[in-house]
Amino acid sequence: MAANNPTACLLVIGNEVLSGRTRDANIQFLATGLGNLGIPLREVRVIPDVPETIIGTVNEVRAKFDYVFTTGGIGPTHDDITSECIAAAFGVPWEHHPVAWPRMQASYKPGEFNSARQRMATMPRGAELIENSISVAPGFQMQNVYVMAGVPRVMQSMFEWLAPRLQGGARIESRAVHVVGLPEGVIADGLGAVQQRYPDLDLGSYPFYRAGGNGVALVAKGPDAAAAEAAIAEVTALIIGFGKVPVPGEPPGV
User: Fold this and answer.
1) CATH number of the structural domain spanning residue 33
2) What's the pTM?
3) For 209-250, how does the pLDDT look when each residue is reduced to its tens digit (9 = 90+)?
4) Are residues 153 and 34 in the same domain?
C-alpha cells in the first residue's frame, strides 16, 4: 500500500463477542468506510473485558498505527470498562466530562440520571466527543484513539459523524474478476508473479462455493486505480490461458 496512506487498527472489546453470544457486525462496515477514506484497516483484534488486556493492547497499537478505533464497552453496566481503561492507558483521570455530563443529565427526568447512566458521561480527562444521531451518549477521542459504541446502529452513526473529520490518503480502489471451475492451486504461481509486478497492491484470491459450481474470486486493492485495473487485466489473461472464461467483478452474493 502506498506510503502516504495512514493505517488503522480496530479493537473489538467484549466478552460477549469472544464467547459467541454476539456476532460482530462492525468490522466489515468500518473496513469499507475507512477504505473509502484512504485509511486501510490493517489489523483487527477481539479482546475481553479485562483491564490489563485493554490497557496494554491500546498502548501497543496506538504507537503502531495512525488510527485506532475501538467498539464496545462504553455502556452503563459493570462490564462496560473501556472508557476507564482508556483513561488508565493515557495516564489521566477518569472524570465527569464537562460537556457530556450536563447534556446527559438534562436528557433524563429528575432522579433518573443514576450512577449507571453517569458512567456514560464519565471519560478520560481531555476527551473530545464523538457525536451520534441515535443516542445522547457520545463516544470520544483521545489523540489517535477513537472510542465508539458496540451497538452497530449507534457505531455507524458515530462513524458517519467522524468520517469527515479524519485525514485519509488516496481512496482504496478495488477491481475484481471471478471464474468458475478453476482451482486456486492451478493459478497460484501466476498470481504470485502478478503480485510481484504490482508491489503497491494487495492481490487476493478468495474461493467460493455455489450450487452452480465452485470457483475463485481475484481482487486487486490499492490507492492506484490504474494499477488495480492493469493487474486484473493480467489476471484475466492468466485465466483465459487456462481455457476458462473470467467474469468481471466479484461473484453474486459477495
Assistant:
1) 3.40.980.10
2) 0.86
3) 887 788 999 999 998 999 999 999 999 999 999 999 999 999
4) yes
